[in-house]
Structure formats: structure tokens, C-alpha cells
Amino acid sequence: MRALANWSGAVAGLMMILVGALIPSAIIIPELSYPPKIISLPSTWQVPALLLSALICGPRAGVLSAVAYLTIGLFYFPVFHNGGSLEYLVRPEFGYLAGFIPAAWLTGRLANQLGMNNFLSLTLSALAGLLILQFCGILNLIIGSSLGRWSESLPELIASYSLAPLPAQLVLCPGVGVMSLAMRRLLLFE
């Protein structure tokens, strides 16, 4: 039964990541007048979907969905931001994609501890996963830059690949916390 739960969670997580990559993110600001103000963010729901799947389905299913996503992108379909293929292994953004795996594991692991079924704990778990993802991406940039793999300087790479998307991803973490709390209550998690 546990294997079925892991595999079904992994498939659901994979679908969330794939669909999340297609959905642009935005913040809705309620106003007295209709319609509410919508502020577009320079990000999609891909990373939040990964974190959400790990918070809901746990570390095993989160890691399985991340591995499946990477496998599909590297060997089968162009599901990454700029396509896909084995060429991505030498691109600056690959460290962030590889960071999906430890980010999913840590996020799911934190969420499975006792007393984690509240908004603050789930949001902090998502933030921890996001920080691991950023760490893996920056580590790849440092290694690749020191080997002269890319023409841009390390500060330019960090500004483009880490600092530019980070504020939008940080803003989405509380949304991930709210959605995961609602889904965990719906699924009767303790």
C-alpha cells in the first residue's frame, strides 16, 4: 500500500511540476473596486509545484517526481524553460534543476515531522526547500564559472539565475503553505 501511495504521489507531483511550468504566477491584491489588482510575477508555478508536491506527498514521492521530471526533460521532451535534452547538463540553469531532488527530499522530510500541520511550519519547509534549490544552483554556477564553462562572469550568472527569480519564488512560498495545508486537511493528514 505504501508503494502505491509513493508512486501515485510521484505521478501527481510530476503532473503538478509539468503544469506548474506552464502557469505564470501573479499576486491578487483585493481592492474595494472590482476587479482586484493583479500583479504579474516574473516566474511560473514550477518550483512552487515541486515544493507543494513534496509537502503533500512526502519526500519519496517528491524525489520520484523530481527525478521523473529531469529524466523527461533530459531524454524525451522539451519541458524545461528553454527546451530540453542532454545539452542542459552543461547549461548554467542545470544546477537549479538538479536541486529539485534535494529540495523535494528536504521539504517532504520536514513536512512529515510531528507538529508540522500548520501554515507557518509548512511555509518554512517550503522556504528551506527553496534555499536548497538555490544553493545547488549557485554551487553549479561557481563550479562552471571557475572551469570557464560560460562567457558571463559569476556575478552576472548569479544575478540572472538566482537573484532575478528569487523574490517571486519567495513571495509564492506562503501560497504553497496555504495550499498544502488545505490539501493535507482535505486528505486527513494528522
Task: Provide a compact summary of the structure.
By secondary structure, the protein is mainly alpha-helical. It has helices spanning 2-20, 46-57, 59-75, 94-98, 100-111, 119-146, 154-163, 166-186, and strands spanning 24-29, 37-44. It has a single domain (2-186), classed as Arp2/3 complex 21 kDa subunit ARPC3, CATH 1.10.1760.
Structure, described:
The protein is mainly alpha-helical and 190 residues long. It has helices spanning 2-20, 46-57, 59-75, 94-98, 100-111, 119-146, 154-163, 166-186; strands spanning 24-29, 37-44. Strand 1 and strand 2 form a beta hairpin. It has a single domain (2-186), classed as Arp2/3 complex 21 kDa subunit ARPC3, CATH 1.10.1760.20. The chain has 8 helices and 2 strands, in the order H-E-E-H-H-H-H-H-H-H. Helix 2 (46-57) packs parallel to helix 5 and helix 2 (46-57) runs parallel beside helix 8 (166-186). It has a two-stranded antiparallel ribbon with strand order 1-2. Helices cover 65% and strands 7% of the residues.
Features:
190 residues, mainly alpha, Arp2/3 complex 21 kDa subunit ARPC3, two-stranded antiparallel ribbon, 8 helices, globular
Known CATH architecture: Orthogonal Bundle
Order of helices and strands: HEEHHHHHHH
Low-pLDDT windows of residues: none
When the domains are counted, the total is 1
Residue-averaged pLDDT: 89
Give the overall form: globular
Number of strands: 2
